[in-house]
Q: What sequence folds into this?
């Protein structure tokens, strides 16, 4: 029973795994290896928020530039330019070496959040953000600083993180940052012969009785991230 205080991702099949959506004002993290769909999932969260709920979103990236993101997301059927014009999408890019600037801009970002009534924030990725700090202590401190800003802004955040698969098949975020978030979603990728399959797993979600089963995931042209809750993960039946 999610109740209506949940922030729906609108990713079909996903909200049902987490009692209807993210808890308001929580900080969620999505971790995966390269190219598994972290940025796509995160942008889908913002796009659906804008289109389905009229929630204004802010996308802060340390990685890709605006033209590139807008062009690629158009392939999934999402017109970011349109929702930007409608005041429901805001794009901010910082080069990785501009982390200092990001913190200096803190009040500017806070003003934007207030002025534009931002409800959903994505940070892509915390790995690029964290990479700039020379030791574990400074890294943790800066991430905690970032998280406390997000909590203060009363937004519901989704943060991407590079992850690696352990030899027991678990997903670990780089620098162990998943321990700091309220929730951790993993996209696992597994190669079977010549095919690479993906599956999503809710590893943790504070205050939520979430599904613990992995669910197959694909990125589909014209649609974005699509889940297949009724199909077996890494099923063997149709493999060639
Ligand atoms: N139009 C499309 N249709 C289907 N799949 C696509 C399409 N465009 C991109 N992809 C897939 O999505 C992948 C990129 O997804 P995304 O950028 O969300 O992953 P990521 O986990 O954020 O990657 P990175 O680690 O590079 O940040 C591509 O490598 C490709 O496999
Ligand atoms: Mg990415």
A:
């Amino acid at each position: 029973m999610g109740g209506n205080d949940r922030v729906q991702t609108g990713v079909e099949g996903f909200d049902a795994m987490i009692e209807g959506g993210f808890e308001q004002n929580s900080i969620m993290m999505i971790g995966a290896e390269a190219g598994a769909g972290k940025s796509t999932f995160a942008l889908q969260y913002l796009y659906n928020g804008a289109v389905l709920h009229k929630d204004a979103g802010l996308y802060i990236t340390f990685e890709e530039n605006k033209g590139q993101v807008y062009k690629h997301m158009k392939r999934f059927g999402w017109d970011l330019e349109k929702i930007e014009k409608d005041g429901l999408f805001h794009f901010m890019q910082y080069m990785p070496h501009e982390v200092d600037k990001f913190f200096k801009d803190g009040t500017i970002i806070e003003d934007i959040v207030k002025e534009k009534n931002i409800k959903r924030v994505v940070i892509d990725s915390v790995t690029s953000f964290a990479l700039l700090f020379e030791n574990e202590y400074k890294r943790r401190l800066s991430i905690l600083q970032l998280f406390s800003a997000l909590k203060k802004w009363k937004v519901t955040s989704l943060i991407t993180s590079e992850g690696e698969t352990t030899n027991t098949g678990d997903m670990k975020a780089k620098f162990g940052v998943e321990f700091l978030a309220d929730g951790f979603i993993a996209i696992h990728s597994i190669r079977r012969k010549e095919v690479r399959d993906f599956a999503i797993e809710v590893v943790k979600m504070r205050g939520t009785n979430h599904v613990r089963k992995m669910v197959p995931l694909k990125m589909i042209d014209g649609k974005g991230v699509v889940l297949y809750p009724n199909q077996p993960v890494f099923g063997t039946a149709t493999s060639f």
